[in-house]
Amino acid sequence: MGSSERQVSVVVTPRERFSTTPRTLERLFETVPDDIPMIVVDGGAPRSVLDGIETLRKQRDFKLITSPHVVLPSEARNIGYRATDTEFVVFVDNDVIVEDGWLEAMLDGAVGHSADVVTPLICVGPPIGETIHHAGGLLKAWHHEKGIVLNETNRLMDQPFSEFDEAAAPVYAEVCEFHTVLIRRSLIDRMGGFAEGLNTREHLDFCMRCAVLGARVVFERRAVVTYLREADFSAGDLPYHLYRWSNKVTNRSIRNFETTWNVLVPKRHLRVDWIGNHRRRAIEQAYPRLKRFLGDWLFDLLVARRLEKSIVRREEKRRKNREPNRPAAFDREKADAIVRKVLDRPDPFVPDAQTRLAHGFHA
Predict the structure, then answer these.
(1) Beta bridge partners of 358
(2) pLDDT tens-digit profile of 139-180?
(3) 3-state helix, strand, coil in the chain (%, to 5)
(4) SS3 at position 138
(5) Could you name the CATH architecture of 9-346?
(6) What ranges do the domains of the chain cover?
(7) pLDDT tens-digit series, residues 276-333
(8) What is the Cα–Cα distance from 21 to 172, expressed in whole angstroms?
(9) 178 by DSSP, 3-state: which?
(10) What is the distance between the terminal CA atoms of the chain, rounded to a whole angstrom?
(11) Do 159 and 132 form a contact (C-beta atoms < 8 A)?
């Protein structure tokens, strides 16, 4: 990297667990030059994880920001961002493994395309780098009997990485995910930071704000990272995981998103089919022997529900007087116009470039 390209900081934040943090940091230390500032927001990690993070200082110096309580992802990004002063900030979740050259490629994408936001090619694993999770994305909306649902389309989701199709994933994008993303500092300042009242749909909130502000979002195929979705959970992960994905926090997040953008969220699918099952998976992996001993029904009644209730009660008490950051006001008419533009539009993943342009998806 040249000196002009070193105007970047790397901020590592928790996503839904702590046990993956050391592995994420070790790989970052191997790929990020020593003179690039790195900030780690622990988010309330247990002592065992913090000790491991401190040990890693022998490999590379970084700023560690600790907290005695759970710090949700958008809160952690705001905290980490305030500790930076560079033109670009790269946010990396603590359950991501980066590949060689990832940071250089993202910076090249930002400079070469005059981008405000750069999203890499995100795989899901383990294993590392085999299955695509996100190759840039597009906003989409559709009619529901009670209003309009706003969501996204992830390009090439669940496709083999070995069969990556550049025609289906052009540089232009409307949606990024926070697993790993590079953002220009001036854009974050214009937005007024990240919306802390969201634990789900936070990336869609960010991308809608990008659209309203006319920010340029690009996909950089040469930057490859893997989100460790399939990694097992430990008991030490549960205080963070079960609070972040609790019904209480999720319901609050859904209300905030719907009110902000005047749209609907598919609540049952989100709360039951995805988040509810995701919580149960984590608890079962943390206590596999107890799960086998008690069986499904008793384990759910005596372990899962009681654990969730106690964690949520404790964390809500700790956060009782905390006011979440609310981004700056935006142009409501422009936001509504963006939703109308993506309403019921055709599937953009067509091989013909001329057809793609006709649909409004610019190469």
Answers:
(1) none
(2) 999 998 889 999 999 999 999 999 999 999 999 999 999 999
(3) 45, 20, 35
(4) strand
(5) Alpha-Beta Complex (3.90)
(6) 9-346
(7) 999 999 999 999 999 999 999 999 999 999 999 999 999 999 988 889 999 999 999 9
(8) 31
(9) coil
(10) 28
(11) yes
